[in-house]
Write the structure tokens for this entry.
Amino acid sequence: MDRIEKLTRLVADGRHNAFTSMIQFGKDVFLTYRSSSGHAATDGDIILLHSSDGGENWKERSSPFHGDRNYYEGFLVEFQGRLFMYAGAFERECPVGELLSSTYVSASSDGLNWSVPVPAGCPDWRFWHPLVINDTVFVARYSQTTRKNQRPDGTFPPSNWQVDLACSKDGVAWETVSAISRDEAGNETELFWDGNRLTAFVRRENCPCHLGITHAVPPYAQWSRTEDFGDCVQGMIVRECHGRRFMFGRCRQASPRIGTIYYDRGGIGVQGYVWQPELECWVEYCRLPGRGDCSYPGIIELPGKRVLISYYSQHEYEDFDINGKTDIFLAVVRTDCMPEWGEVSVCGKETLQKKGLL
């Protein structure tokens, strides 16, 4: 059975289109992405698309994050009956590497009319995929002291990055709950709640730059020892879809000790993994068409044991320059296929070895 049923090149306008987020809100689907003249350009805006037919046809709608700042992600989350959008932002026209980014938030009751953006939490906080648990929204927010200490090989001193868990009762005012990652150069951190414990998937820029996984139970004050996933996975999302747990992100197979994609970008692709609960390990599920600057997916369930995945990629172009053109893609992927079993993560191998299966 073919895992990828359909692939659509949704946006291809010659710009750098990246960092998607997608959500079903009521009967409608909303999709955001950043449009700019380059990955590190200073003119980023968040584009908002709307579909009323399950992602088949799209219309651009007015976005609250346009023109006044250099915006990056536009993360969407439903909370207290409203749709919230969180966007990381730099000051407009100021070089990205010379200042810290902050997060702004806007809310809407229908996904079409949005409130005036306001700061979310403290300055220099950057959010990643807010997650609602009961009556509270949680987020892994990351910050750094400076980018000026970047090493010649593209890595950063561990003290330059840190990740904290924060929570909010209204989606606007936030308080710190606990420290998720220290001394690992962690930044983008995906949260997944299974009903009993919270798992954090930490992108780490230090050597090695493999994905780190850690867990906490309520009240999330203490986190477990970080496990090494064994692959360099970045820009990831983790979702439970049709009874199975999936992770999609940018997998870097070349030069795994280098965390940033500004260097040695060979062997990069958009990889999907599936969690095998009976073996307690992640294994490869499918690889989406993608190369170069790519990933940052969004996922929603579709009928018939399928999911719709949004992401961006440079694979339609010969030039993989970091500030080159990138397009937005939509993939319809089946969720009921067998894993590829091409590779098991380091954590998975340890589990299988303990069970005497490897």
